[in-house]
Amino acid sequence: MSDEIEILIQKLKTLEEEIETAIETKKAKFYQGVQDGKAVFDEATKKAQRKVKIGIDKYIFKSKFATIITAPVIYGMIIPFVILDIALGIYQLCCFTAWQIPRVKRSKYIIIDRQYLGYLNIIEKINCVYCGYGNGLMAYGREVAGRTEQYWCPIKHAMKAQTPHDHYKNFVEYGDFESYKAQLEKLRGDLRKLKDK
Fold first, then answer.
1. Is 157 exposed, middle or buried (0-12, 13-18, 19+ CB in 10 A)?
2. Element housing 38 (H / E)
């Protein structure tokens, strides 16, 4: 990788850290932190949240017909989600262990905590649990696939990749066969040095 690209990647990391700091500052306006896996709210905030909660009857009555009839399709995805979740665990146990790559920590990606919000009714809480699981599972799977791609095929595409995974920026350029042969073992070694993400 060229020095110019390395400098740009470092600038990007610095900018990402600044964005994360700004997000953390904004979070502080809404809750006081996390304790035992739950966000901590003051009593006035909890009371205000409960006040705006919409009852289940109004929630269902105001829902669009298209939302109601597609719910079984949406919730039917739980079956392939669970199968994928189990498969990713088995895959990592077998392959990542054999390749000496640290396994992706599932709990860092699948975060289920919105059900504790006082302004959500039971249906909204179930929806939030489901979305937290589904989207977290996809992010978890993406990280597993990204590590696998770095191990087996760390070559950028000729076409522009839309929102590539974090490992992609370290891949060798499309068509650069010399760098591929020279960098493959280094990139595999970098995976082995990964800290728990």
1. exposed
2. strand 38-39
Q: In this predicted structure, what is the pLDDT of residue 164?
A: 93
Three-state secondary-structure class, residue 192: helix
Global confidence as pTM:
0.81
Average pLDDT in the 81-99 region? 98
As a dihedral over the C-alpha atoms of residue 46, residue 49, residue 54, residue 56, rounded to 10 degrees, the angle is -30
How many H helices and E strands in the chain?
8, 2
The mean per-residue pLDDT over the stretch 2-24 comes to: 83
Helical pair 122-152 and 78-91, crossing angle rounded to 10 deg: 40
- Residue position matching structure tokens 């905590």: 113
Q: Are 139 and 179 in contact (CB under 8 A)?
A: no
Kindly report the CA angle at 116 between 54 and 67, in degrees rounded to 5? Answer: 45
Transcribe 66-133 into DSSP letters. HHHHHHHHHHHTHHHHHHHHHHHHHHIIIIIHHHTPPPP-GGGT----GGG-TT--HHHHHHHHHHHH
Per-residue tokens: 187 = 């990139």
d(CA 31, CA 42): 8
At 197, the pLDDT band (50, 70, 90 cuts) reads low
User: What is the rounded CA–CA span in Å between residue 185 and residue 190?
Assistant: 9
Report the distance separating Cα 36 and Cα 128, nearest Å.
19
